[in-house]
Amino acid sequence: MPAAPHTLPAASSAMTPALIVLVLTLLLGIQPVTTDLYLPALPSLTEGFAAPLSQAQLTLTALLLAFGTSQLVWGPLSDRFGRRPVLLWGLGAYTLASVGCALAPSMPLLIVWRTVQGAAMGAGVMGARAIVRDLYTPEIGARVLSRGLTGLGLIACMSPSLGGLLSDLWGWRYALTALAVFGALSLSLVALRFEETVPRMNPLALRPATLFATWLMILRHPTFLAWSALTAAAYAGLFTFLASSSFVFIKVLGLTRTQYGLVMFSASFAYLLGTVLCRRLLPRYGVRRTVALAGVLTLTGGTLTGVLALAGLHNGWAIMLPFYVFMLAHGVHQPCGQSGAVGPFPQAAGAASALNGFLMMITAFVVGGWIGTRLDGTVFPLTNGIWFWSLCISTIAWTLVRRYGDPRRP
Fold it and tell me: Is residue 7 part of a domain?
């Protein structure tokens, strides 16, 4: 029988299950805080700097490119020196970069600081996924990770509303200051309470020959590729919404920044419910069947989003009601996919987590660049994009994951 979901190795007994979930929540939550809290301020920030729309999109896409690329460095570093020092370095740099963003005097400098911010937050998200593999088997890890992603959902629920409120009351700089506060709180928790989880450091992890051999081994593994394809496509669908929704809802549909924050809150709440649904389905159906069932929800929600827009229903409800179904499934795909991708590599969890995150962010970078050139004053870049990615996600769930998704596969 596998260990109970809350069972930890003896070496980590001082960290309670509640503390582990809290640490995972903050480390995973740094990503939606950095993107979602910032989104309601994006139109006013663009106007304040009198910057073109392409530069505004670059504050998101550059952040995500740095976020994905940096994980290729953070992962091997954490395998070599441990999760704790990497988290301390990353969260410290994130806090300083957040202060730089809030004080940036120009759009180019804001882009620079957002790039540094993205590179730094890679340590947190990579570390969270690796910690789960350090402490749990892949099957149990998916359930534990879903708890951390439930916490992420709560943070994502609050972030857009808080960002919209701060922007409406005091301006976009206060919204970016909130990121520095979050970084400082996360850094304090890790410094004071978090203990090392790597059972054995790998002194060869940073040697070029070892590093490239490890990456090649991971990239050739069909289980890693299947789950990474799922997480990358799922995040691409979400990022299509993130990159276009503030302009569609505020500029096209006429919502205020605070109202838009509530829209984002509702989408995040649907995601939160999806993580709860994931924990309910996993014990009954297993990982691959759970993902296949979620694929039905993904395709249903994405198709309805696209069809209603083509039918001329261009309003918030016509977009959001089917998108809630998409987000419900997203709450299943991400914990299962992230845990599944790292599952076959207990001795290289940092490197596998880094590669999985890198592939997700490279996909998001490409999507963000595409969205930035397609925003045309209509809802179609958003709705058609979600429809397209829903087709990709469901296809991957029903084919690649079904065939190669067993985390015990050699």
Answer: no
Residue 201 lies in a domain: no
Task: Tell me how far apart the alpha carbons of residues 117 and 97 are, in angstroms, rounded to a whole number.
Answer: 5
- Rounded CA-CA distance 346/170 in Å is 47
Encode pLDDT of 348-383 as tens digits.
778 888 899 889 888 887 887 788 778 888 999 999
Q: Name the H helices within 220-256.
A: 222-246
> How far is Cα 358 from Cα 126, in angstroms, rounded to an integer?
10
The whole-angstrom distance between residue 397's C-alpha and the CA centroid of its chain comes to 19
d(CA 110, CA 118): 12
Cα 289 to Cα 191, 332, 337, distances in angstroms: 39, 11, 13
Q: What is the CATH number of the domain that holds 44?
A: 1.20.1250.20
Strand, coil or helix: 70: helix
Its pTM stands at 0.78
Exposed/middle/buried for residue 170 (C-beta within 10 Å: 0-12, 13-18, 19+): exposed
Residue 118: per-residue pLDDT: 93
Q: Domain for residue 3, yes or no?
A: no
Alpha carbon separation from 332 to 80, 290, 337, 364, 395 (Å, rounded)? 31, 8, 8, 19, 15
List % helix, strand, coil for the chain (3-state, nearest 5).
Answer: 85, 0, 15
Kindly report the number of other CB atoms within 10 A of residue 312's CB atom.
7
Nearest to 111 by CA among 43, 65, 142: 65
Does residue 198 belong to any structural domain of this protein?
no
Query: How many structural domains is the chain composed of?
Result: 1
Confidence of residue 308 (pLDDT cuts 50, 70, 90): very high
pLDDT one-digit tens code per residue, 13-52:
467 888 988 999 999 989 888 987 877 777 777 777 767 7
Dihedral over Cα of 407, 8, 336, 345: its sign: negative
Amino acid at 149: L
Domain containing residue 395: 15-193+210-404
